[in-house]
Here is the input.
Amino acid sequence: MSTRFSRPLRRALLVAAALITSTFGAGIASAKSTPVDVKVVGSGGEILAQHTQYTDKVSLKTDTKASCFGQGTEGSGDKVKVPGKTALGAVVDGQTADRDLKPVSVTDAFDFGLGVCGIGGEIAPETGFWYLKSNNVESQTGGDLTTVKKGDEVVWFLDTDFADASPAELDIDSPTKVQLDSEFPVQVFEFAPDGTRTPAAGVAVTGADQVTDASGSTTVSGLTKSRTTLTATREGAISDSDRVCARENPADCPKQVGGIIGGSGTSDEIEDTDDADDIAMGKGDDKVNTRDGSADDVDCGGGKKDKVKADAGDDVAKNCEEVSVR
Here is the structure.
């Protein structure tokens, strides 16, 4: 291998040694799909996706043009299976809920697992790679061997220069409920590769006139929309975003601010929030109960026996086979 693999793949031998154990463990995992928080950030800090994603075993075709690891490392073009619930599976499944993740380009040229070259059309240059973190800690294995469980956080970031230090992962901490058109404070933290959390200075936040100070704090101007997404960015860092509800009386806001929820390619039992959600289920026979009083959008995908318990105000697609409205 060339020296350009030094940071992203310097653990290749450890990964290879763990391959049998990791694959076996994934293969005997529960058949029920698992919800995780997945975030994918491009090299310029743009957030390609950030939502709740149900995931299970996946299969995908390797890319004969996936040459980001150097000449001769392109994919075979064969279809490969990723057993169990993994960080790579979360991105592959995530294409249903967020088309910005299409296509996912991988190569099967290596013995130790799949190499990820592209997500959402953003291709890793030969000087870089797709950096992966799980629960704020730098992953020690590739995406197909990084297993996930319910509630885990998976972050992918396109690092264009493997020679640089590992990027900081930003974490914006904003109130869920605020008063409409009133200023409010936010704080931004950053995670080191080992998961150490410290205040993040010099971060730009949506709606704030000043970047964060040494304590990671800044003030956001009054919000004029009932729901707003605040994004925290800093050059070279992994961006983060948070949704905020603004009302004349903040107590009128729901406990959770709704968002996007994606289903897997297998059967899912999806739990929505008590706010308006965009739910895009996958190919399996899925179940979801959206009876929370909010106006949810539900697309049942390609299943043949999808079941939806809905409110009268929900927008339920015609591809949902069994719909019960209250």
